[in-house]
Design goal:
about 120 residues; mainly alpha
Length: about 120
Amino acid sequence: MFTNPNCKPDQVSPLHLFMALYREALTNAATLLAGKRGEEAAEDLLDQLRLDSRPTRRAIRIASDLLDVLSLRHVDDLERPEATYFARIDPADPWIEDVCCLTEFLAEALARTLSDDDPGIRTAA
């Protein structure tokens, strides 16, 4: 996944590890919940994380935006596409539980990446 020679497995962030494990699931969930915009955000996050072993502020912002999508944060805003995608969801669909787990995993990876225990977010945008 990470072709940058500066990205060594023991030096990547929790966000990198999350994407290594759940890239396809994140892309699928983001697409289901936000359409093309969600899909592009997931791909953009992957591209950003490929640049270095430390996430940039832009990567953190994209991950936060994706967490908002997975958390259904904007489904009540009728001006946003998430509202339309949310209206099409059947709560009984089996993938709903998977999205809930994925949301928790992304939230944890993002929190750990931002924590004091995980030194250094790249300051370059």
